[in-house]
Structure to design on (275 residues):
């Protein structure tokens, strides 16, 4: 912990040096989430029980897409040799795994469940994949655009006892270390983590590519392992209850006024912003 100009900054650096990470044979694990496409205008159900997902386009969560792109760039630069993509949810999540495979990932893991999970359950399920795959680096989006929690990466780091670099705007891997430039309130902060480590991506880390048609066809032949979440020994009972979903209040239209006097009168009597 460092105190700089009255602000406290925490640097979580992994101190487990038991593993000899060989960057020539480096595996990256990238969790991706199925979420509503960011171009879609979200609608709330009439009973306000949830968001209406009927006939709504779904895509990879944008922050997860940035994580996939960063993993691919590390592979293209010769630092990584294998990219494993994992998604948790219904059978429909396979679509997002295939998209990541088309972008350049090597294989996928689908943890299948119909349960509504919160961040802690997701992190615990991801830990079982980390334990099995033993990746040198886990890169995931800092948050999902639906739940907007920004918790899973930090929870996974705590469960796996790995160092974490969150809100990454730059990632550099060398000599068994990953230097992560973080976007913080006061500017930028760089932390150096011993691999294996966990990185969560911010918007300015990179610009994701589009999948080419040949790569989309190749992705159909890449392997996806399906695992039943109930077989992983994780309690899938969520600690979070959704009470109500409400749409934002509709903004009223503007009003034209004849002159300055009328404008001032309305600001006083209707808007009540001046006295």
């Amino acid at each position: 912990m460092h105190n700089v100009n009255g602000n406290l900054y925490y640097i979580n650096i992994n101190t487990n040096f038991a593993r000899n990470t060989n960057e020539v044979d480096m595996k990256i694990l990238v969790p991706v989430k199925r979420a509503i496409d960011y171009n879609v205008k979200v609608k709330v159900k009439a009973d306000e029980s949830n968001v209406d997902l009927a006939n709504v386009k779904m895509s990879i969560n944008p922050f997860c897409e940035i994580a996939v792109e960063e993993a691919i760039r590390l592979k293209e630069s010769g630092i990584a040799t294998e990219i494993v993509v994992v998604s948790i949810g219904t059978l429909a999540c396979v679509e997002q795994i295939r998209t990541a495979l088309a972008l350049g990932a090597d294989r996928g893991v689908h943890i299948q469940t119909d349960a509504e999970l919160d961040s802690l359950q997701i992190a615990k399920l991801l830990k079982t994949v980390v334990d099995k795959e033993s990746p040198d680096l886990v890169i995931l989006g800092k948050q999902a655009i639906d739940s907007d929690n920004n918790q899973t990466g930090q929870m996974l780091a705590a469960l796996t006892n790995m160092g974490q670099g969150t809100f990454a705007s730059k990632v550099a891997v060398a000599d068994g270390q990953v230097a992560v430039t973080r976007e913080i309130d006061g500017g930028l902060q760089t932390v150096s983590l011993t691999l294996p480590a966990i990185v969560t991506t911010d918007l300015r880390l990179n610009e994701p590519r589009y999948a080419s048609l040949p790569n989309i066809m190749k992705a159909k032949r890449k392997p996806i392992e399906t695992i039943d979440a109930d077989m992983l020994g994780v309690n899938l009972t969520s600690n979070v209850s959704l009470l109500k979903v409400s749409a934002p209040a509709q903004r009223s239209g503007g009003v034209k006024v004849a002159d300055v006097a009328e404008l001032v009168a309305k600001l006083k009597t209707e808007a009540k912003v001046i006295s």
The first strand starts at residue 2 and ends at 4. The helical segments are 62-76, 94-103, 119-133, 152-160, 213-219, 260-269.
